[in-house]
Task: inverse folding
């Protein structure tokens, strides 16, 4: 069983008799009735996507996914091509299949990812918790502001936008948490 609080991008669960995989975390909202987690999910069988609002504490049945280690070979438009590390077979997933995870992948990356399969059909990827990316654009840093409390938007080398502390500058290498897209630290390389 999996609870609403344990659901992340790439998690798979049964909801109303259908297997779903989470593509995007849309946020959380609390109100009089309690906390509601908003998700964009994809029906694994039909391929249709929809937005769900799940109450805190709800429990769902896990969907059994098989994982295989792969490495990103190249990106062709909206298709991401991975090479299976054991069979050297090419596996292709669309940007829609990857959801938010597409923004953390680049063919230049050295780390391996895991493709998740449902009934021998590739449905998503699992990334390392932390990945290192380069900032390609952000407003200039503020000297002396190292508190990290205030943030500004920054565009990364893969094209996604994340929030970073005010002291970050263009061309800085930073570590990003792939579970929620948050800034972790400046890269030490």
Result:
């Amino acid at each position: 069983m999996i609870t609403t609080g344990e659901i992340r991008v790439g998690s798979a669960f049964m909801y109303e008799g259908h297997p779903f995989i989470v593509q995007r975390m849309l946020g959380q909202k609390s109100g009089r009735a309690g906390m509601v987690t908003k998700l964009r999910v994809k029906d694994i069988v039909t391929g249709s996507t929809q937005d769900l609002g799940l109450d805190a504490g709800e429990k769902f049945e896990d969907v059994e996914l098989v994982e295989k280690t792969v490495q990103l070979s190249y990106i062709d438009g909206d298709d991401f091509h991975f090479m299976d590390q054991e069979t050297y077979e090419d596996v292709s997933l669309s940007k829609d299949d990857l959801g938010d995870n597409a923004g953390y992948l680049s063919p230049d990356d050295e780390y391996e990812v895991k493709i998740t399969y449902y009934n021998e059909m590739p449905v998503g990827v699992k990334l390392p918790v932390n990945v290192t990316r380069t900032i390609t654009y952000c407003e200039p840093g503020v000297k002396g502001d190292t508190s990290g409390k205030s943030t500004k938007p920054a565009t990364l080398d893969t094209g996604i936008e994340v929030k970073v502390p005010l002291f970050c500058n263009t061309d800085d290498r930073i570590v990003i948490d792939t579970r929620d897209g948050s800034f972790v630290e400046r890269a030490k390389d």
The mean pLDDT is 85. The helical segments are 95-98. The chain has one helix and 16 strands. The first helix runs from residue 95 to 98.
